[in-house]
Amino acid sequence: MTTTRVDLAGIHVPLITPFESDGRVATNALEQLAHQVLDDGAVGLVALGTTAETATLTEWERETVLNICASVCRARGATLIVGAGSNDTASSAQALGRLARWPEVSAALVPVPSFTRPSKAGVVAHFAHLQSSSPVPLIVYHVPYRTACDLDSGTLWELGTLPGVVGVKYAAGGIDSAAVELFADLPHDFAVLAGDDLFLAPLLALGASGGILASAHVSTAEFVRLVKAWDSGDVDGARDLGRRLSTLSGALFSEPNPTVIKGVLHALGQIPTPRVRLPLLAASHESVARALEVYRS
After folding, report:
1. Comparing C-alpha atoms, which of 246, 209, 241, 211 is closest to residue 225?
2. Burial 22-31 (b: 16+ CB within 10 A, else e)
3. Is 141 marked active-site?
4. Which ranges of 77-151 would DSSP assign to H, the alpha helix?
5. Known active-site residue 170
6. Element containing residue 110 per DSSP (H, E)
7. Using DSSP, how many helices (H) and how many strands (E) does the chain show?
8. CA distance 27 to 46
């Protein structure tokens, strides 16, 4: 079990996996994109998250992506969070154990078990078991519309008191009563990170430390400005910026993530192709054009 605390305040970008025209991972583009979002103020990267299309990558490709992100974070002194784990506790523990090979890893982003639909006590037991042997601290990925497991504030609070759990990526699809109750009584040294891009601003207003936001591939500096505006007490500025960025996020998520984001990054010349892997399909021209229009405005 690790008891290392991690400063999670700020914007963390869950990097896409860019592909070449022949389908190979575009390693140079990935490295350049990682440096670019850090140049624009992101405090860290998330490797091998949902946005990276991790489920479609081979084991060799996953290691390649992680090696690149680790190298960039080592050079830049940035936080590196890695997606790991599944609905099987034993294999999740093994996946976390393998992260010891990368000393640059600051924390692991671990989803609440999906499909199995354990009880709330089962979810707590799952994370208690994982944190007891993990070489890195854990961030709970609470995303009920993907896991079919909606956690109440009491369960989230219990998870937050586990020694090796340092935060939660909160992606409940809105601001629900569990979020309000959790912020009213946060466990010590437990960070809440916005995981639904559209709801970054209201979660920051409640007291979130920052966010893990796919939208922050685009206009990274503006998302960073939004966090700093709330931190500095610039409420009017934060409200205005939050409204504009929520419009951008809505456009970027008009089709399944990360298809529109890839279309926009390709149009901006930051990745070689907008390719995604099945079962995803490339975003429509209309959705990409709309997102570009919002971005440029």
Report:
1. 241
2. eeebbbebbe
3. yes
4. 89-98, 120-133, 144-147
5. no
6. strand 107-111
7. 12, 8
8. 16
Peptide bond into 258 cis (omega under 30): yes
User: Dihedral, CA atoms, 135, 129, 46, 3, nearest 10 degrees?
Assistant: -50
Give every CB contact of residue 166 below 8 A, 6+ residues apart in sequence: 5, 6, 8, 107, 137, 138, 139, 189, 190, 191
* Residue at token pair 């990935």: 30
Active-site hit among 120, 145, 169, 262: 169
- How far apart, in whole angstroms, are the C-alpha atoms of residue 152 and residue 123? 12
One digit per residue, the tens of pLDDT, for the chain of length 297 reads 555 678 899 999 999 999 999 999 999 999 999 999 999 999 999 999 999 999 999 999 999 999 999 999 999 999 999 999 999 999 999 999 999 999 999 999 999 999 999 999 999 999 999 999 999 999 999 999 999 889 999 999 999 999 999 999 999 999 999 999 999 999 999 999 999 999 999 999 999 999 999 999 999 999 999 999 999 999 999 999 999 999 999 999 999 999 999 999 999 999 999 999 999 999 999 999 999 999 999
Burial 227-245 (b: 16+ CB within 10 A, else e): bbbbeeeeeeebeebbebb
